[in-house]
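[job 4471] stage=fold_predict status=RUNNING
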Amino acid sequence: MSSPGVDGDPKPPCLPRNGLVKLPGQPNGLGAASITKGTPAAKNRPCQPPPPPTLPPPSLAAPLPRAALAGGLCPPAGLPLGGPASAPVPGPPVERPPLATDEKILNGLFWYFSACEKCVLAQVCKAWRRVLYQPKFWAGLTPVLHAKELYNVLPGGEKEFVNLQGFAARGFEGFCLVGVSDLDICEFIDNYALSKKGVKAMSLKRSTITDAGLEVMLEQMQGVVRLELSGCNDFTEAGLWSSLSARITSLSVSDCINVADDAIAAISQLLPNLAELSLQAYHVTDTALAYFTARQGHSTHTLRLLSCWEITNHGVVNVVHSLPNLTALSLSGCSKVTDDGVELVAENLRKLRSLDLSWCPRITDMALEYVACDLHRLEELVLDRCARPPHMGQWRAGPGERGRRDLLEECTDPQPEWRGGAVVGRWPRTHGMGWDRGGGAVVRVQEGGSGCAAGGGAAVG
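[job 4471] inference complete, writing C-alpha cells
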C-alpha cells in the first residue's frame, strides 16, 4: 500500500533514490529486493520467470514431464497440461515382410492352385516351401511312386533309397506303389518315418508282392485300414489268410488271378469291421457270396462286384440276405444277372442309394420298373454299356411303348426332353421313379453304348 505524501497526494510506489530503485513487496513472500541501476537484471528479477532449460522440442505423442512444468515451462498452445490423454502411444514402426514371403498372404493364396502346381511352387524358395509343406494343402491326395523312382543311382553303380522326408513333412496318409517287390516294400517301411502308424491307406498295383511280403507289410504298418491290391499275381489266397487284420475297413482286390472263392472266405472271416469291399475276379462263384456273416451284415455298406462273370441270380440272393444294410451296390459286368436278380435287389435292399447295372446284357425294361417301384431312396442308377438298354430301340420308336411311357408319364417337367436317344426329366420321390434329392433327380438313359445314369440335380452331357 502506498503512503500519503506531504501535500496529501499519494506517494508513487517506486522513486529513484541515489540510483536505487525500491521495489514493492511481492505477494509470493520474497519481500523487497534491490538491484544496481544499469547492471544485468537476469539473475535476481523476481517478476520474470527463469529462462527455460535447453530441451528437445516436445513431441505431440509424449506428454510434457512434470518437472519441466514446475520449472516454468509452458505447454504448447492448444495442448492441455499433461499432454493429450486420449492419443495412443504408438511403438516403433513394425517392419512387415515383403508380400511375396508374407505367410499370411501365402496361406490364402496357395488354396487356388492344383496339386501339380503346388509341387512346382514349392521349388521357388524356402519360404514358399515352408508354407506349402503344411499337411492342410495335401489332404486327400495320394502320391504315386513307381519302383524306379524309389532309388537313386550312386556314382559307383549302387542304389540308394530316396529321401522321403518331404512326404513326411506334408503328412500324406496314403501311398500308391507301382511295380514294387517285397524288398522295395521293406525299404519303404524302413525309410519312411510315418510308415508304422501314420499311413492309413496302401495301394499296390502291378506289383510282384508275395504272401510273405504282404504279411510283413500289414504286420509292420499297423495304421493301415484301407488296402488295395490290383494286378498283383504273385500272392495267393493263403497270403490273405495269413496277413489280413481285423482293423481293415476297406478292401479292394482286382485283376489278381489267384483270387477265387476261398479269398472271399478269408475276407468274411478275418474282417468283421469291413465297410467297403470291391472285388473284380473272374473265378468267384455264387458259393463265395454265401460266406458273408452277420458281422458284415451290420458293418458293410458298399459292395462292388466288377466283372464277376460266374455270379448269377443265386449269388444275388446270398448278397441280399447276408448284407441287408447295403447303400451302394455294383453288379457291373455280371453278365449272368437278369431281371429277376434286379427284382431281388429292389425288394430287399431298400436302403440303396447307388445301383450300377452297367455291362449287364440281360437287363430289360422290367428291371427298370422294379427299381422305380421299390427303391425310393435311390440317387444314382447306372446302365452304362448295356447291350440292350431296356428296349431303348422301342422306347425311341414311339412314345406308346411301355418302357418310355413309364419314364415319361410321371415326369414333373412340362416338356420332358428326348436328347440324342436320352430321356431327361425329374421325378418326385412319391411318384414314378421315386428318385429325389433336393427337389428331384435327373435321370439319363442312353443307348448305343453311351450309357445311362441318374444323379442328384444335373444330367451328364
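[job 4471] summary: The two ends are 113 Å apart (CA to CA).
[job 4471] exit 0
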